[in-house]
Write a structure and sequence with these properties.
Radius of gyration: 27 Å
Number of domains: 4
Largest sheet: 2 strands, antiparallel
Distance between the termini: 47 Å
Shape: globular
Number of helices: 30
Number of strands: 6
Helix content: 40-55%
Structural class: mainly alpha
Amino acid sequence: MLHRLLRNVFTFGLATAAFGAPEVNDVAPLGAYTAAERRHWAFQPRKDVPPPAFTDAAAKAWIRTPIDAFILAGLRKAELTPAPEADRATLIRRLTYDLHGLPPTPEEIGAFLTDKAPRAYERLVDRLLESPRYGEQWARHWLDVVRFAESDGYEYDTHRPDAYRFRDYVIASLNEDKPYDVFLKEQLAGDEIDPKNDGLLVASGFNRLGPLRKNAGNQEVASSRTEVLTEMANIVGAAMLGMTMGCARCHDHKFDPIRQSDYYRLQGFFAQTQANDVIVATAEEQAKYKAAMEPLEAEMRKLRFSMRRASEEEKGKILTRLEEIDGQVPPPLTAMYAVKNDPKEMTQIHMLQRGDYRNKGPRVGMRAPGVLLPDGTAEMPLDTAKPRLRLAEWITEPSNPLTARVMVNRIWGYHFGRAMVSTPNDFGKMGTRPANPELLDWLANEFVKSGWKMKPLHRTILLSSAYRQASQSPNEKAYAVKDSENKLLWRANRRRLEAEEIRDTMLAVSGRLNAKAGGPSVMAPIDAELVKDLKRPQYWSPTRDRSEHDRRTIYMIYKRNLILPFMQVFDSPDTLLSCARREQSTHAPQALELLNGTVSNDLAASFAKRLTGAPRERVDSAWKLATGRLPNERERALSMQYLDDPDPAAWTEFALSLFNSNAFLYVN
C-alpha cells in the first residue's frame, strides 16, 4: 500500500511544532462558567426519581416494569391510553429483529406460539440475548456511532486490511456483556491499560477509526496531524458524551458552553498518541516483505526529494511514477491496528485561530470540558502518564451526567424506533430535550447500578408492556393529532428493516446464509464500472471462496469510497462521520434495486429452489419464511393465480415479489 511507502510523511509522530507559524508560548486561561451556562438539563446531575405510583386496577395490570409506570404517567397526563398488546407472532418477529437483525425461523415461531408457560416471553428474551447473533446485530449500532470503516477515505482510500479485528472485538465484547465503562476504557486506552494484551491493543484501534488524508507528494505533516487530533477529539464528544465538541474547533461554541480552549484541551489527551501497527506476521513473511519494499522505498525517497525543486511539469511526471510504484507494493503484513504513547514525539497543543494549524494561539494542557468541572479545575500537563486512561476514567465516572444518559438513550432508540433525545449525538442546546426526562434518568441510574451491564437494560426494556404494544391503536386518528410523532409511546413504532437486515434476511430465507463468525472481511463481486472509479481498483479483489459471499453483511468490507449499491440505496451511512441514527427513507430506487438488483434476483432464485411440495404448500412455506406468517386468503389467492403460469421462472418472480412486499421489509 502507498501509505507503507509514505510512512515518514504520514507518521503520527511528527510534531506540529516543526511546521507552520512560530511557536506561541502564551498559556490559555482556564476561564469560568456562569450559572446559566451550567443550568442546561444535560449538564445537571441525574435525578433519583422513583417510578410513579398507581392504585387503580387497570394501571396495575398494565405495569410490568418500572418503565411502564413512567410511560403510563405521561399518557394519562395527555389523556391517551396505550395500544393493546401485539400478538405473539408479531412479538417474536419484532424481538428477533431487534436483538439479532434476522427473522425467526418458522420452527421458532411455532414453538413460541404453542408455549403456554407463564414465562414463555421472558425465556424468549433471554434466549435471544444469549445468542452470538446478538453481538453481531448490536455491534453494527456501535460501529455506526464510531464511524468504523476499513479504508482511509479521501482520494486514496487506502485499505486497512486488519481493521476487522476491531469489529470482532466489539462483537465479542457485547456477547460477553462487558460492562460499558470497561468497554469505553478499553477503546480509549487499551494500550495504556496493558500494552502486552493483544485484545486491548486491538480495542485501542478505536483511536484510529477516523478518515485519514494521504497523497503521493510532500504533504503538510502539521496539517495531517491536526486532522488526526481533530478526529480523535470529535468522536469522543459525539459518541461518548453526546456533545458537539467539534463545533468549538475554530471559535467558542455558538450555542453550548464549550470554549475553544475546552476543545484543544480535549485534544491534549491525545498529544502523545501515535499509530502502532503491531506486526503479527512470521519472521519469514517479514523478511520477504522487507526485501520487496526496500527498493521501492528507496526510489520513493529519491522522488520525494526531487519533488522539492521540481517544476510543475516535472512534478506531474514524479506523481505518475509514484502511482506506478504504488501498483508494485506487496500486500501489507498482518498486523494489529493499534496506538501507543510516545512522549518523545508528543505534539504541543495550541489553540488554532479559525482551526488553522498555521495560526497558533496560546498553548494548552489537557482537561475535560470545563462546564462539567468546578471552576478553576487545573489542566494536566501533556506529558502526564496514561493520559487517555485519565480521560476514560473521567468519562466513566458514575457521577458524570452525560455518559450513562447518552448510552441508555441510544439503546432505547434502537428498540423503540425513536430515542428519548431524538438527537443522540447532541445533548446540547440545539439538540432536542428528552421526551421523558424522569425515565431517562431512572434508566441511566439503573444502568450504572447494574455495573454498566447492557443486557439487563435490554431485558428491562423488552419485558415492559410499553415495548409489547401493537403498532396500531384503536384511537389512531385522534391520538395522531395529539402526539403525531408518538413521543409518548401510545403504540409501537413500525420500522423498515435496515440495509444489513434486508440482505441478511434474503440470505436466511433463501437458505444460503453462511453463519461463519469473525475473521477478515469479505469482498464481494460488484459492477466493474464501480471498481474502475476507485483510485486503486487493483485492490478490490473479491474473496475467492464463494460461500464467503453469503456471510452476514457485518462481515462484508466497509470501504469509505465504495458503499455497496444495495447498502447505499437503503440508507447505509457513509462512515466519514458518526452516524447517530439511520435514516428511514422511502424512494423509487429502493424498489428498482429489489426488483432488478443482482443481489435480490440471485437470492430470489435460491429461495424459489428451496420451496418444495404442492403449489399451495410452497406458497404457504414461502410466506412463512419471508414474513413470519401464513398468507391471508386474498394473498394466497393472488399468489396461486400468479403461479398458474407453467413457466419455472414464475416461482423465482414470486419469491422476488415477496422480497418487495411490505410484510417482508417492515417490522410491526
